[in-house]
Amino acid sequence: MFNPDKYLTVKWQMGARVYPILDCYGLVHEVRKDLGLETWPDFNGVVSDDGGMNREAQLFRSKVSECQSQEGAVAACFNHQLVVHLAIVVNIDGQLMVMESQKGTNVTIMTVQRFERRYRNQVRYFK
Asked: Contact 14/24 with Cβ under 8 angstroms?
C-alpha cells in the first residue's frame, strides 16, 4: 500500500534522484517504484534549467502513452510546447491527488483540479 507520509521528509534539490533528496523527476521516479510500476530511466543529471528535461521528455515520449489522470500517471506541465515540471498522480484514501517536489516547498500534495488550475490547465498525463 502506498504511504504518502514517506515523502513528507523529502528535501528538494535540483537534479537529485536519490531518496530523501529529490527534484520533481526524482520524486516521480521514487513514487513509481513504490507503486510497483515499470521503472522509467532515472535521467541522472538532467535538469529543467538547461532545457534538459524538455529534451529528454520529447525523446522518451514515444515510449509512453497519453492518458487521463490516474494513479501512477506522470503529470507533465507545459509552457507552450516545453516540458517545465513533472509530478505524479497518487491515490490517497480513494481520492486522486498530485504529488510534486519543488524548491522552497519540497513535497506538496493537492487535488488534481487544484494542480491543473495552478499550471493553467497546461498539464498532460502519461503512463
From this structure: no
| Count of domains forming the chain | 1
Task: State the pTM of this model.
Answer: 0.89
Q: The CATH number of the domain where 94 resides is what?
A: 3.90.1720.10
Beta-strand runs (E) in the chain: 17-18, 21-22, 66-67, 74-79, 82-92, 95-102, 106-111, 123-126
Q: Which residues span the domain enclosing 98?
A: 4-126
Four-CA torsion 32, 36, 41, 45, nearest 10 degrees? 50
C-alpha cell at 22: 529529490
Q: What 3-state class would DSSP assign to 55?
A: helix
pLDDT tens-digit readout, 73-96:
999 998 888 888 999 999 999 999
- Tell me the three state secondary structure of residue 106: strand
